[in-house]
Write a structure and sequence with these properties.
It is elongated and about 70 Å long. It is built from five helices and four strands. It is mostly helical and 156 residues long.
Length: 156
């Protein structure tokens, strides 16, 4: 929670303006440290059951920088774990079949924040968002030419 307070203070100081580079680095470091603190601890001894993860009271509300360096709650951001949906400059290139998702309208997490940190702190996955949208928009199979010939006279 100390990391969350520090990130919130960075966001408050910046308002709705992009962070300076040094503050952007600090925000990414805070996110990584918070995610590390929330990750289950591993032990050298062999246990029959893994320890339960610590409670995550900051997921979704942790302030992360977006792709433009503006701080926002993690729950409003998407971490880019689907590079093939974007071209090299981070903008949607329109050629890769996004399945109905307008990637240009998504608010992405800044690339300096590691994906594991963004996900642990509550940012949504672009890959998961794409998969969910793809499932909800699956089309029915196209009817055969013979079926269409049979149906057309009924609607003409």
């Amino acid at each position: 929670e100390d990391f969350a307070r520090a990130a919130a203070a960075l966001a408050s100081d910046a308002g709705r303006l992009p962070l300076a580079l040094d503050r952007l680095s600090l925000a990414a470091a805070l996110a990584e440290a918070a995610a590390d603190a929330l990750a289950p601890q591993t032990h050298d001894t062999v246990e029959s059951l893994p320890p339960p993860p610590p409670p995550n009271n900051v997921a979704g509300s942790f302030m992360l920088p977006d792709a433009h360096g503006v701080m926002a709650p993690a729950s409003l951001l998407i971490h880019n774990d689907a590079e093939w949906l974007l071209d090299g400059d981070g903008d949607w290139d329109g050629n890769n079949g996004s399945g109905g998702i307008d990637v240009a309208t998504l608010r992405l997490v800044h690339p300096s924040v590691p994906a594991f940190a963004a996900e642990t702190l509550g940012a949504r996955s672009l890959r998961n968002l794409y998969a969910v949208d793809k499932q909800s928009t699956d089309r029915l199979p196209c009817p055969s030419a013979q079926t269409l010939r049979r149906l057309l006279p009924a609607y003409a």
